Amino acid sequence: MRFLAVLTVRNEGAFLLEWLAHHRAVGFTDFLVFSNDCRDGTDAMLDRLAEMGWLTHVRNDGPYDKRGIQFTALKQAERLDIVHSADWLLPLDIDEFVNIHTGDHTLLSLLAALPEATAITLTWRLFGNADIRSYTDSTVTETFTRCAPVAMFWPWRSAMFKTLYRNDRTYEKLGVHRPRAPNLDKLPNARWFDGEGRELDDPFKTRRLFSNYGRSNYKLVQLNHYPLGAMESYVLKADRGRAVHSDHMLGMEYWVDRNFNTDTDDSIARTHPLRAPILADLHADPRLADLHRAAVGWRHARFFKLMEQEPYRALYARLLMTPASKPINHATATTLSQFAMKGRT
């Protein structure tokens, strides 16, 4: 069984080894990684990892599709043998970690729990900043454990998902959140399930991007989403630009929509015993170790350089002044939804 994760990165070498080790531990057999315009040595790390047989690295240097850098990468991926030969596919970002709650916490256990599934929605659980200011060279999954409640009513982004799906040609194209271009002859046989184990209805097979609100979607699996990190890291993320909407600078609206810290979830620690030897082996390679240290140093230097520029200095000051986001209750979310529906009509 071949499980392929497809990743797009820029200037994220400091986080790469943890991400790869975790996802190898949970059962991904193959990685296809696209890099673009890296200044911190991420591309050199990927070249070294490709030499070691760890992954396939493709430079995504443009020109880019009007829908953005990530869409361009996924279009390239569709032509590659590594995609065609995979049994299961999952496009991911560097700030997303698959967290499986069933069996031995691997993909094979997840499929054993949902043997009829041809697609499984992995709903985000948003992990907030926890008032951490400074970036340090520490593992993301152990540093950030404060998160949103299980049942969220607003915003809709809190319930977005990524899709792990069987590569049986029911869908012809990769998508950021869900597979695209369904084969209408095969579609009736598709069986979609959510992370709670519930079978999903037809709209999920063709268009849905987020799970239903106000309930748990995580019994079997969730997608730990760490979109913010330390405040210093968020400033660098604003500098890097967005993978989908690359012309939109990240600001406070993105931060407030995701900075929930009311709950604690350290369930992903159950995979750390599986991850630890893999991560240690990666750091034991002298070239990777040097490149990792260089990426960490680049992040520190880049932050101080950005502090000389008013837009980034102002953003950092606003992060320092803004408290954690407050989850909205069901009644208020219903009112906001009514406003939204009225606006649409």
Summarize the structure.
The chain is α/β, with parallel strands linked by helices and 345 residues long. The protein has helices at 13-25, 42-51, 69-77, 81-84, 107-113, 140-143, 202-206, 231-240, 252-256, 272-284, 286-306, 310-321, 330-344; strands at 3-9, 30-35, 56-59, 88-92, 96-100, 119-126, 146-147, 161-166, 171-173, 180-182, 192-193, 221-225, 263-264.
Structure description:
The chain is an alpha/beta fold and 345 residues long. The chain has one domain (93-344). It has helices at residues 13-25, 42-51, 69-77, 81-84, 107-113, 140-143, 202-206, 231-240, 252-256, 272-284, 286-306, 310-321, 330-344, and strands at residues 3-9, 30-35, 56-59, 88-92, 96-100, 119-126, 146-147, 161-166, 171-173, 180-182, 192-193, 221-225, 263-264. The strands form 3 sheets. Strands 1, 2, 3, 4, 5, 6, 8, 11 and 12 form a 9-stranded mixed sheet that branches. It has a two-stranded antiparallel sheet with strand order 7-13.
Secondary structure layout:
Elements: E1 3-9, H1 13-25, E2 30-35, H2 42-51, E3 56-59, H3 69-77, H4 81-84, E4 88-92, E5 96-100, H5 107-113, E6 119-126, H6 140-143, E7 146-147, E8 161-166, E9 171-173, E10 180-182, E11 192-193, H7 202-206, E12 221-225, H8 231-240, H9 252-256, E13 263-264, H10 272-284, H11 286-306, H12 310-321, H13 330-344
Parallel strand pairs: 1-2, 1-4, 2-3, 6-11, 6-12
Antiparallel strand pairs: 4-8, 5-12, 6-8, 7-13, 9-10
Helix pairs in contact: 1-10, 2-11, 8-11, 8-12
